[in-house]
């Protein structure tokens, strides 16, 4: 690494390395170089190679996916490989470290900042000019990791756009930030006429992102929970609640109002539980139903959204997790002419889906 000059990865360079490691044949490499020259694709070379789905020349001859190639590159340049998990990233804090333009210029993405170091993902291990600048600004050590260029490109846009929307929404609501975020404050400020703009474009963007993010993570529930000074967003994934993000209360309140409007609930009523529902569509065109429940708490309304995927209705028992023995026992019981079968379990365990 120390002998490498500052440069972006090039397709011939990567293919030469893959050939020398006996992962790609020389014929395949030459074919791809010739084809790439004609197409002039403005893509990261790892993406170009992955799109051709070469089989590794090394046993067990697995397909060289983008993740496999990225992991190989990390070992080649003696850096750690990291698959980016958005659930573990506090986008609000890491995006404060550098601007979107600066991160995009070097194709890097800050992932974590603790007391001692800053963890930065890169798909360009030979670009290092940024390190001294970030080290000087953060006054921390820099730990580089190699991540998929597709993930870096996706989350660069997603994290920075979301952080911008959150900051803008919080700024727009700052004048009204004490207008009823909690019942403790409502005792004194109940006559305030200030309201949050639930139709603010930044709030619309944040709510749209929240739903799409939940669909991508295959969450069964979304929890929006107010606290005294901030609010939490949590997803239930495979039965376990994961904290996703922590947002200013001004933003949380506006998000809750936006969702209540879409669910045809009474936006002004915040002191009693309410129920509603929303039908929406994913980016893939799949229709999804959200069932909403609000509950008053000491610091404002808690909102829970249960996600109902209509696709589960056409799955068989094996896809729902039934073992062969369980499936056999179930079929025997349901074919009996009389009797009763009790299907029990906590909320979200799959009772309705099974029936």
SSE layout and pairing:
Layout: H1 11-20, H2 26-39, H3 45-51, H4 66-76, E1 80-81, H5 91-94, H6 100-106, E2 108-113, E3 117-122, H7 129-138, E4 141-146, H8 149-173, H9 183-189, H10 201-216, E5 221-226, E6 230-237, E7 240-248, H11 249-262, E8 274-281, E9 287-297, E10 300-308, H12 324-334, H13 351-354
Could you explain how this protein is built, in words?
The chain has four domains: 11-78, no CATH class; 81-153, Type II secretion system, protein E, N-terminal domain (GMP Synthetase, Chain A, domain 3, 2-Layer Sandwich), CATH 3.30.300.160; 178-311, 2-Layer Sandwich (Beta-Lactamase); 326-354, no CATH class. The protein is 39% helix and 20% strand. It has 13 helices and ten strands. It has a six-stranded antiparallel sheet with strand order 7-6-5-10-9-8, with helices on one face. A hairpin with a 3-residue loop joins β5 and β6 (230-237). α8 (149-173) runs antiparallel to α10, α8 (149-173) packs across α11 (249-262) and α10 (201-216) packs across α11 (249-262). The longest helix is centred in the middle third of the chain and has 25 residues, at 149-173. The N and C termini lie far apart (59 Å).
């Amino acid at each position: 690494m120390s002998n490498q000059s500052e440069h972006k990865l090039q397709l011939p360079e990567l293919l030469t390395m893959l050939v020398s490691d006996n992962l790609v044949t020389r014929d395949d490499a030459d074919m791809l170089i010739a084809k790439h020259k004609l197409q002039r694709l403005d893509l990261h070379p790892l993406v170009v190679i992955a799109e051709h789905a070469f089989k590794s020349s090394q046993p067990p001859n697995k397909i060289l996916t983008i993740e496999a190639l990225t992991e190989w590159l990390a070992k080649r340049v003696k850096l750690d490989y990291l698959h980016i998990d958005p659930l573990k990233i506090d986008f609000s804090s890491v995006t404060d470290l550098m601007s979107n333009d600066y991160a995009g210029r070097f194709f890097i993405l800050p992932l974590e900042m603790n007391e001692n170091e800053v963890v930065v993902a890169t798909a360009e291990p030979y670009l290092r000019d940024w390190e001294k600048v970030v080290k000087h600004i953060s006054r921390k050590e820099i730990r580089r990791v190699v991540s998929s260029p597709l993930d870096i490109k996706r989350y660069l846009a997603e994290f920075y756009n979301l952080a911008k929307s959150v900051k803008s929404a919080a700024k727009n609501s700052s004048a009204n930030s004490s207008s009823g975020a909690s019942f403790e404050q409502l005792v004194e400020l109940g006559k305030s006429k200030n309201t949050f703009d639930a139709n603010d474009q930044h709030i619309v963007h944040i709510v749209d992102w929240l739903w799409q993010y939940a669909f991508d993570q295959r969450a069964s529930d979304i929890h929006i929970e107010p606290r005294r000074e901030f609010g939490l967003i949590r997803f239930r994934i495979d039965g376990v609640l994961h904290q996703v993000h922590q947002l200013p209360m001004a933003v949380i309140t506006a998000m809750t109002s936006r969702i209540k409007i879409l669910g045809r609930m009474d936006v002004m009523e915040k002191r009693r539980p309410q129920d509603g529902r929303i039908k929406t569509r994913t980016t893939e065109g799949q229709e999804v139903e959200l069932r909403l429940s609000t509950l008053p708490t000491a610091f404002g309304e808690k909102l829970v959204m249960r996600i109902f995927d209509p696709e589960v209705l056409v799955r068989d028992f094996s896809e729902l997790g039934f073992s062969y023995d369980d499936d056999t026992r179930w079929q025997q019981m349901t074919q009996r002419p009389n009797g009763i079968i009790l299907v029990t379990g906590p909320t979200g365990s799959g009772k309705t889906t099974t029936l």
